[in-house]
Amino acid sequence: MTARPVSSIAAAIACAAILLAAGSAWAAPEGGKAYFDSGVRQYNLGHFQEAIVEFEKAYNIDPAPILLFNIAQSHRQLGDKERALFFYRRYLEQAPAAKNRREVEQRMKDLTESLQQERDLKQKPPPGVEPTERSGTGPVSPPPPPPPNPDPDITKPHTEPKSNELRWLAEAFLAPSFIAFSGREVDAPALFTLRVGGSYGLPLGAASTLRVGGEALGALLPYTDTVSAAKKNSSLWGFMLTARYLFRATPALTFGAGVGAGVIWWGGLDAGNPFTVDFVAADGPIPMPSFQLGARAEYAFGPRLFVALSPELLLSKTTSDGLSRAISSVRRLDIAVGVGYRF
């Protein structure tokens, strides 16, 4: 009996350790991880067709891009180069920022060259038949196949964060705002509102998330002094608690809607302002209980960075008698455009 080399034993132990660590780190809905673990076992046993079946079952529960990579690996091990290329391409389309992108692209290049060599061999004349045109006098030999690259571990990419694993989120928006008042008619120009917020995502399923958090917002509301005709600015600033439901329609595109509640303060109401009764000055910033309702569309550039469009309708109720008897409420539509970052 020939003893197994020490290097082979060490490699087997290292591979087993990687499989155990990666399998436990993969966050997936109940059932999906069981299929994934079964696929890894089948792959390690050399049952590549069975591994494909298990990885496909896991993908139907949680369409994680890395499962496409594992399916491609299994097809390549079976010698099905066309199917392997298909799934490698799908993997890079779904995970354009994958850390193993360079390795996968090299694998695709090798498979493409190998397929081309096979086509060239099929077109080569049978032995004893000379081609009509030859560049040399000796027999034409096909080029040697490219050397095999080290096989990347099928579970290694699961250490990359997925969007549903990055629960915390920060975002900033700049919004043109259109404002109207209930009670007194006051002409107001379009405003620009700055919104800065943060939230925490609670997964509701493979593609659904409830995001709860808060945001601070502020805007300047210009007006003309009714006495001196001077141009002045009042301010609208405050804080809102928010809750949004989001559904991931594609790996990059997410849609949703949400609500918010909080307080907006209206400050800078000096004497001569056109908003209060008899145009008197307010004693200080006036708090206004506020409620907002909005929609959301997000486009992701990888698992962390995204851009978003978020129209928000904001209704604020005035509380000061000197203001409420003239203007009972303030309505505002913010067309917010901004960026967000998951961590």
Please provide a written account of the structure.
The protein is of the alpha+beta class and 343 residues long. The chain folds into two domains: 6-124 and 150-159, Tetratricopeptide repeat domain (Serine Threonine Protein Phosphatase 5, Tetratricopeptide repeat, Alpha Horseshoe); 163-342, Porin (Beta Barrel), CATH 2.40.160. Helices cover 30% and strands 36% of the residues. The protein contains seven helices and eight strands. It has helices at residues 6-25, 32-44, 48-61, 65-78, 81-94, 101-123, 321-324; strands at residues 168-183, 191-203, 208-224, 231-248, 253-267, 286-301, 305-317, 327-342. Strands 1-2-3-4-5-6-7-8 form an eight-stranded antiparallel beta barrel. The model is unreliable at 1-25 (pLDDT under 50).
What is the topological layout?
Layout: H1 6-25, H2 32-44, H3 48-61, H4 65-78, H5 81-94, H6 101-123, E1 168-183, E2 191-203, E3 208-224, E4 231-248, E5 253-267, E6 286-301, E7 305-317, H7 321-324, E8 327-342
Antiparallel strand pairs: 1-2, 1-8, 2-3, 3-4, 4-5, 5-6, 6-7, 7-8
